[in-house]
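Weekly puzzle thread! Below is a chain. First person to post its structure in token form gets bragging rights.
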Amino acid sequence: MTEAYLEVLDLGYFEAPFAFEGLADENVWKRPAPGLLSVGELAGHIAYLSSLITL
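Winning reply:
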């Protein structure tokens, strides 16, 4: 089970940069609509939660 979790986690880290591909720096923190998170905020939440899970 641990091995499967680590494989999925590794895949997520591999795919994360694609969310920023072609995205202008000023749009990383721009929210697409009120009540929705920006790409930068989503990445921050994912990184934080991943760090808690892997501890």
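Puzzle host: Confirmed. Bonus trivia for everyone else. DSSP finds two helices and no strands in the chain.
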